[in-house]
Design brief:
The chain is mainly alpha-helical. The protein has seven helices and two strands, in the order H-H-H-E-E-H-H-H-H. Helix content is 67%, strand content 7%.
Length: 181
């Protein structure tokens, strides 16, 4: 079976600390959403495959009033697999932003329709920037206790800067469109 980046993403997440599939999904969305994502439907099949291959282990935590939790931990073999991947060159980045695709073909609709797409794009990035700022503070606090959060902080800082740049672009684009009217 061809390896997927999802395997490495999950191995990396559980290398920080043991967690459930739900926790993995939440961690990816909150800490990595600016640069990587995984569908909920990918998580459990990937966890089963990683466990079958000996890269992670599963411990069932019994809960009396809630469903039992399956908590996954990385094994030494999983760390080796993660390290091998980390040492390989990264694939080139690819970005897909539907709003920008619509802007690229904006001459086919009224300008106010394109401005609306840009405004919505800006609103999304303002929200993501606010979340990145909160996450940056949280990671800096955790960093005082454990240095393993340093590299996670670096990725959050890039996301923060990307959201700032997107907001600045949106403001400039809307200004340019209104000057053109």
């Amino acid at each position: 079976m061809k390896e997927s980046i999802a395997e490495y993403g999950i191995l990396g997440v559980v290398s920080k600390e043991p967690m459930s599939g739900y926790d993995i999904n939440k961690r990816v969305r909150t800490r990595m959403g600016a640069f990587w994502g995984i569908s909920y439907g990918q998580i459990y099949p990937t966890l089963r495959m990683l466990e079958k291959d000996g890269y992670i282990t599963k411990k069932v935590v019994i809960n009396e009033n809630r469903p039992n939790r399956k908590v996954y931990s990385i094994t030494d073999k999983g760390i080796e697999k993660l390290q091998e991947w980390l040492l390989k060159p990264a694939e080139p980045e690819s970005v897909r932003i539907e709003a920008l695709l619509k802007v690229a073909f904006g001459e086919h609709v009224p300008k106010n329709a394109i401005i609306k797409h840009i405004e919505e794009f800006k609103i999304r990035n303002v929200s993501k920037l606010e979340k990145a700022i909160l996450l940056e503070k949280e990671l800096k606090t955790q960093l005082k206790k454990n240095e393993k959060y340093f590299y996670s902080l670096l990725t959050v800082l890039l996301g923060k800067n990307m959201h700032k740049a997107s907001i600045e672009w949106a403001d400039n684009a809307m200004k340019l469109i209104s000057e053109q009217i």
